[in-house]
Amino acid sequence: MAGRKVVQTDLGEKEYEMLSAAARDEGLTIKEAARKALTEWSVSELDMRRDPLFQLESVKFREKIRVSEIDQLLYSSK
Length: 78
Description:
Blueprint (H helix, E strand, L loop, with lengths): L12 H14 L3 H15 L22 H9 L3
Helix pairs in contact: 1-2
């Protein structure tokens, strides 16, 4: 199991039933469903300020372009 870590937890009967039903509905094993749930939760909890997309520097263009010109280029029918 190179590069992988084992995560173990215990669930109450109701929690296990919900996980089991959701996994079955999606055609997943309980292990796959738990991995998917953990991954989705982890991503949702990330601090977006650390995301490289939100750390981009603004770009200075050589010539000024009006927003209306951009709109016309993008949205006018040809």
